[in-house]
Amino acid sequence: MHLNGSPHTLTTFEDMTHLHTGLSPEIIEKARLELNENPDVLHQDIQQVRDMIITRPDIGFLRTDDAFILRFLRARKFHQTDAFRLLAQYFQYRQLNLDMFKNFKADDPGIKRALIDGFPGVLENHDHYGRKILLLFAASWDQSRNSFVDILRAILLSLEVLIEDQELQINGFILIIDWSNFSFKQASKLTPSILRLAIEGLQDSFPARFGGIHFVNQPWYIHALYTLIKPFLKDKTRKRIFLHGNNLNSLHQLIHPDCLPSEFGGTLPPYDMGTWARTLLGPDYSDENEYTHTSYNTMHVKHSCSNLERECSPKLMKR
Fold first, then answer.
1. Is 242 helix (H, G, I), strand (E, B) or coil?
2. 3-class DSSP state for residue 121?
3. How far apart are CA 252 and CA 241, in angstroms?
């Protein structure tokens, strides 16, 4: 970028610098190579997306700051029209599902129950590409205790917290779903309508890069369910879903065992279901059945997230 001393140019430069605060040169280069992110025109890219907001007066865009719009550009590799479409869908999804986002915080009783029961699990370490690994142990779903919608809310809230980390906006996420001991009775509660709600929330309306969705130990009726939801999945999503069955070797070819807990044949200790709930809830964490309402401090969460161990990724590997 050439600075000519004009106030506008200086502001643009400061904005760009501010948006990359804390990012290593390697990560900035990865964003350039993989996401087409150009620091020299970052401000203009963001403004072009913001300028499109007037085309959708039917949607309440509740947040339009630079840092927020940037995560949508990254999620769509800086294709501005696609980024705007995702931004619009993000707020439209919230408008259409108001009840889901009422009291959308960790101490909401439904969300808190789901978090304490391990929905989702979030590994402290990243994989070798710097991606965050989320876990779902499907059989832990006690349907008398957690509604599917509350589990989905807990997952979306967790992603909201994690996506504040700029490195995760660039590196993305991995999701592993373990279907061991997931009963046919439990599966029968996964109706097409609630599965579609989840797909719309995660695939169509959230600014995250999912590098892979891995099914492990899935029974035949999960294959049947997958066939049912396939028409709602984008080609890109379908290509990133891997059905491993009980073949952990194929999982390990994509995610190194030293990044995984022992449940997935990894070298890490078994996953402690309360890990992520304690991170989100802090001193409010309690696995008792009494739920207290206290304020949800996002800054505490962001601080906790930034201090998590990263033993698994001493340096980020290029994909």
1. strand
2. strand
3. 15
Q: What are phi and psi of 213, to 5 degrees?
A: -120, 115
Angstrom distances, CA of residue 38 to CA of 12, 41, 271? 13, 6, 39
Q: How far apart are CA 21 and CA 302, in angstroms?
A: 15
Strand-strand pairing, 210-216 and 241-243? parallel
Cα–Cα distances in angstroms (integers) from residue 301 to residues 18, 23, 63, 153, 239, in the given order: 21, 19, 20, 17, 33
> CA-CA distance, 118 to 276, in Å (whole number)?
8
Alpha carbon of residue 23 to chain centroid: 19
Determine the Cα–Cα distance for residues 242 and 312; give it in Å rounded to an integer: 22
Spatial CA neighbour of 176 closest among 218, 132, 141, 133: 133
pLDDT in tens, the chain (319 residues): 333 333 333 344 444 567 888 899 999 999 999 999 999 999 999 999 999 999 999 999 999 999 999 999 999 999 999 999 999 999 999 999 999 999 999 999 999 999 999 999 999 999 999 999 999 999 999 999 999 999 999 999 999 999 999 999 999 999 999 999 999 999 999 998 999 999 999 999 999 999 999 999 999 999 999 998 999 999 999 999 999 999 999 999 999 999 999 999 999 999 998 899 999 998 777 755 444 333 333 333 444 444 444 444 444 444 3
Residues 215 and 241 sit within 8 Å (Cβ to Cβ): yes
Spatial contact of 136 and 177, defined as CB atoms under 8 Å apart: yes
* Cβ(119)–Cβ(79) below 8 Å: no
Decide: 105 and 157 in contact? Cβ < 8 Å.
yes
Residues in the chain: 319
Q: Contact 134/119 with Cβ under 8 angstroms?
A: no
